[in-house]
Amino acid sequence: IESGIPAVKDKVPFDIGAAVARAQTLGEHGELLTKHFDSVTPGNALKWDATEPREGEFTFAEGDHLVDYATGHGLKFRGHTLAWHSQTPAWVFKDGDRDLTATPADKALLLSRLENHVRAVVGRYKGRIQTWDVVNEVVDENQPDGMRRSPWFVVTGYDFIRTAFRVARETDPAAKLVLNDYNSELPRKRKAVFDLVKKLRAEGVPVDAVGHQLHVNIEQAPAAEIEKTIELFAGLGVDQQVTELDVSVYTDFVSSYTTVPAGVLALQGYRCKEIFDVLRRQASHLSSVTVWGLADDATWLSSFPITRLNPPLLFDDELQAKPAYWGIADPARLP
Ligand code: G3I
């Protein structure tokens, strides 16, 4: 890894984290991680399909590795995620072969599974995971009530959210509890997430923070909208985090290349600068900022929906600093 370049964590006024798997803790990846970052989020290791593939059978191998690694290297840890509609095994939403429905018996069954799951996973890492994404992507701004029609919501209404937060708080009272979603920088989604957080907090549901994923694109220039979002939620007095930042460079233009043109990577760097100008200005409302991956050799964006050229992170495939890094660490050195 490059020596002689500043650590990102020394250049920002909040904790900065990266999403990781086991591979990012090994060798040079581990050196890069501990040099530049204050915290980690497991990209997949603590999701339900990884932790409870069959009812009551818990598997924590990668989660344990990551939590032990973080603890041993002085990194904070963001747990991700307790209730989501994706990467959740089919059994969770079934009784035998039958899909659960909105009957009182099915609802009670699903909520008891959720309660068991949250107790087991949060309980295992009590005191070692400082922050949990409790519910993920529950908002759908195109529904009249703003709620995604996931099996969670169809069967339980808002109660899965209430249960997940209540049980997480009971199990580890010191952990910061987050409601996490994407596109909250866009006006209609922002409003729907805001209305939900406001309603839950008014009821006494312990939503400590709102997570803005910030999966953005170089074409969007989203900085001004991000600032509006942070200011809006600040009015609720709720803590905020940026939880999954990456800056996609995928466009029709880039799709015709076999390597990303330098000018595109430079533009990505300027987008990072614009975004971090806002995040620095709003730092009093933000307890952490996490990028969704360590380096471009491992990112969901180069395999979604098919393998393609889309390096969205601060370091390249060779772990070298990109303009995206300079846009954050020292914008004066942008190309
Ligand atoms: O574990 C298997 C492995 O055994 C197999 O060989 C390999 C071959 O495809 O697949 C592996 O599973 C993949 C897993 O990532 C681990 O790499 C899954 O197919 C793939 O679907 C999964 O993608 C993850 C995605 O969530 C799925 O929803 C991404 O890594 C992860 O970065 C992404 O993260 C989400 C956040 O949790 C929520 N917000 C959006 C964000 C980006 O989609």
TrEMBL record:
<comment type="similarity">
    <text>Belongs to the glycosyl hydrolase 10 (cellulase F) family.</text>
</comment>
<feature type="domain" description="GH10">
    <location>
        <begin position="2"/>
        <end position="331"/>
    </location>
</feature>
<protein>
    <recommendedName>
        <fullName>Beta-xylanase</fullName>
    </recommendedName>
</protein>
